[in-house]
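Office hours follow-up: a student asked to see two folded examples consecutively, so here they are.
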Amino acid sequence: MRLSGPKREKTSIMADPKEDIVERTTILNQAIWQKWNRFTWSGLVMVGTGLIVVSFGLLMQMGPYSPEGLVVGFGIILILIGIVRLLIGLINPLAPNDLDNMTVPEEKALGEKIFKTNSKI
């Protein structure tokens, strides 16, 4: 017994190049928006956290060879990481051709995902 989903007919229709450009542009816009949301906000949070840690380290005033230098250094590292994340979020690709070809995998039937029917019964 073979478990499989509905059969799909494969047709080869030549796609209109204008539709391909529109599709690639929408994919590019979605990628830019997702990247901006992910990296820009987390970069701002990292910079803010780094500034708080640096100000806390400067307020410690414990004397020479104290842990305040370590805390300030940790805060500066957080600020640098935040700046890099901000730059990643703000720099966008120039054109849809900058993106690699993104292919959407075809959905397989549930039976094909669970069972592999390579052997004859």
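And the second, which I mentioned at the end of office hours:
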Amino acid sequence: MLSHNDKHTHLRHTQPQPNDPFRLVMGGQVAFVPKGGFRWVSGVWGENGMPDRFLVPANAKAEVALAESPKDSMAVFLALQDLTADEDSYLAVANRFGFLGVPRVHFHSGETPIQWGEPLSFWHHEVSLLHRWLEAWTLSAAKNTRVLRRKLKELLPVRPPANVLPFALGELVHVINAHLWPDVSGEINPTCLECGCACRRVSVKPHVFYAFRLSGEAVVPEVRPVGLLAAAWLGFGEVVSGQRRIRPCEVCGQWMDITDTARPTAKRMHERCAHARRVRRWRQAKRERGSEGRP
């Protein structure tokens, strides 16, 4: 058992500190990843033995290390926006930042002794939702009301009104807030088909909280997200509110943050894409000079 001093030391090393850089937080402490990373395993959960894939530590007894610290919420938002809907892409993000923050469920699998994990179906749903609402926001910003109306019909159970632009913005703000409001509730999982247990647990939804950080000798207020998912929606909210600016790269098509660029409208591609283009052009010019007999 930990002594009082040991507990105090443990909390100081696991809770976010006032002079910490931006860090993801999960379950009251900074986010961790298991040494050796995560993996997906097949299993069943719930009273009907629903099959799914589950994100769990690759080694059930592995120690943990601090998750990678992203630059800010916008970096998380862009990382999730760039994801393709497959296990390998999700796994790469988890091995960098930790669990997504969707509810972990009680499951049974012959591949691991671990019985709690994040279902792949939950990852699919949340990442897809973020992608589709970004598409809706893009259509709204471009005032493409005809295609926007079709997109909203896919996303919402109600028929969009005639004045669709303010309606779309209002619904988007509601969805963003729904991912950021705190909500703590006790849950009883459905009786497990495999072991007959009914696991009571407390589910804490990803949310944000207000905190203060030391920057030199100054005390700076900031909003910190709890969980990877909350960080992504917080970054999206900064885009929608106009605090941050993004645009797609002309080369790779991925979104990039142009907020701090000296001339935002002039930035058309990532630095890595611009470098790759220059290298390709240089090599092409060299081949052409060689074919013409010029040095």
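Two things to take away from it. Helices lie at 4-14, 73-81, 87-97, 120-141, 145-155, 164-178, 228-240, 271-291. DSSP finds eight helices and 14 strands in the chain.
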